[in-house]
Write a structure and sequence with these properties.
Blueprint (H helix, E strand, L loop, with lengths): L1 H25 L24 E7 L5 E7 L2 E6 L3 E2 L2 H13 L4 E4 L15 E7 L6 E8 L5 E6 L5 E5 L3 H4 L3 H4 L12 E8 L2 E8 L2 E6 L3 E2 L2 H13 L4 E4 L17 E7 L2 E10 L4 E6 L5 E5 L1 H6 L19 E8 L2 E8 L8 E6 L3 E2 L2 H12 L3 E5 L12 E7 L4 E10 L2 E5 L6 E4 L1 H15 L1
């Protein structure tokens, strides 16, 4: 009987618990009762784009003032510098969007309890129309670490904001300043001189292309040179080692005899960067010649600058592309084939004709294969001389006209053992070509010659 009463009591308890869960929990909006109430913004109605001035005091003690002007955001104190627009954007967005998780004390008697008598972080700001600063003061974390105690300067109450906002609000002067290593207009760069690893490379703009002028004079690979310019433009300083470094101090940074020096010629002006000794395992000291500061940058930048001239030479053996070639001459073993593109009429596709040695139509698939193979041929490396390359007696010579006959290029191929080399008139040395690609081109030649 006693067991039956216990069972009945247990059933009653379970039914009561189930009813509570259903009516109290399931019937509430997701997130519980508090979620039904919309959370207030810390600064209701604030438009982040209207903020014009910020004063940020970080947990480290940095006090930084930034202001917006017609040229963007500028750091005004403790240094004068361009501000990091992305960092400022994150900060102003956080001020406008941060919500009050919960009010913990409407009328606190002791702000020390919340770490707010001497706040760890303070962000003051003025938006358009504000006469006085509005302030957000951030104190300690809650025992669980999920929230931060905070208050405004115009209210007594202490409230909570999400702890993840600390990384956005707690910004030092270095965080808020622009960290670009060199400032220059990329579109106006017309020359680059790099001295690193005991070698000097000079590159100059040649119309819309780039040309190597030292240690050899030859066409440069457009993508590789633009990649170097982009690398310099996006390089970021990792820290500031010295705001003012007189010439006598440069020795301790390895900047009296730099590991690498880069000159960017920009019309009549020049930007110069020096890279010195090791600052840490993955950073080195650096200095913009126009500024007194010594900073640190990733050591990988030095490695990039130590690339040899071949890294910037044009690797494509041919400039033409299958769609713009109009005339091809191929000579091999005393035999020359001449091919011309014939424009299609009435929306019909173009075709190719063999003009000599015997006029005939050329199979479209075979011709497409040949054009593709030739236009994709690339150099794997370069040699300084054509000696011992077989180019004194070319195994294959190809002349191509393209862009409606406005441009012409000629490439000769030589064989030395199992190696294949290519040379273009007026360019120094020779390029080492892929043997398999060369054999495929010869195979296509033989098929079209039939």
């Amino acid at each position: 009987m006693r067991g039956l009463k216990s069972t009945i009591a247990l059933i009653v308890v379970l039914l009561g618990l189930g009813a509570y869960i259903y009516f109290v929990t399931w019937k509430q909006p997701e997130g519980g009762a508090d979620a039904a109430k919309k959370q207030d913004k810390v600064f209701a109605g604030l438009d982040s784009s209207k903020i014009e001035e910020l004063k940020v005091t970080s947990a480290a003690g940095d006090a930084t003032t930034v202001k917006k002007d017609t040229g963007g955001w500028q750091v005004m104190q403790p240094v004068t510098a361009k501000a990091d627009e992305s960092e400022i954007g994150s900060l102003t967005s956080a001020l406008a969007s941060t919500e009050v998780s919960r009010v913990v004390d409407e009328n606190p008697t002791n702000l020390n309890d919340y770490g707010l008598s001497n706040p760890r972080i303070e962000v003051d700001f003025k938006a358009a129309g504000d006469k006085d600063y509005r302030k957000l003061m951030v104190g300690g974390k809650t025992p669980t670490g999920g929230d931060l105690y905070a208050r405004r300067n115009d209210e007594k109450k202490v409230f909570l904001i999400p702890a993840f906002q600390e990384s956005t609000l707690n910004r030092t002067t270095f965080d808020l300043r622009d960290k670009g290593l060199l400032k220059f207009d990329r579109e106006k760069v017309d020359g680059i001189d790099v001295s690193a690893g005991g070698k000097t490379i000079a590159i100059a703009k040649d119309g819309g292309d780039w040309k190597l002028t030292k240690p050899v004079q030859t066409k440069a690979d457009f993508g590789s040179v633009e990649g170097l310019v982009g690398r310099l433009q996006t390089a970021q300083m990792k820290s500031i080692a010295a705001h003012q470094a007189p010439p006598a101090d440069l020795t301790k940074y390895g900047l009296d005899k730099p590991e690498a020096t880069v000159h960017l010629n920009i019309g009549s002006s020049r930007a110069t960067l020096f890279l010195g000794g090791k600052a840490s395992d993955n950073t080195v000291y650096a200095r913009d010649a126009s500024k007194p500061a010594v900073v640190t940058v990733e050591s990988s930048l030095v490695d990039d600058l130590k690339k040899d001239a071949d890294s910037y030479r044009r690797k494509d053996l041919f400039e033409f592309r299958p769609f713009n070639a109009t005339h091809i001459e191929m000579s091999r073993n005393g035999q020359t084939i001449v091919l011309d593109r014939v424009k299609g009429q009435n929306d019909k596709p173009d075709t190719w004709k063999r003009v000599s040695p015997a006029a005939a139509d050329v199979d479209k698939e075979k011709m497409d294969g040949l054009l593709s193979k030739l236009s994709n041929m690339r150099a794997s490396s370069f040699v300084d001389s054509t000696a011992k390359t077989g180019l004194d007696k070319p195994a294959l010579t190809i002349t191509v006209k393209f862009d409606d006959g406005k441009k012409e290029e000629k490439v000769a191929f030589g064989q030395s053992g199992s190696d294949v080399f290519a040379a273009r008139p007026g360019e120094p040395g020779a390029a080492k070509a892929d043997t398999a690609d060369f054999n495929e081109a010869v195979k296509s030649f033989d098929e079209i010659a039939k």
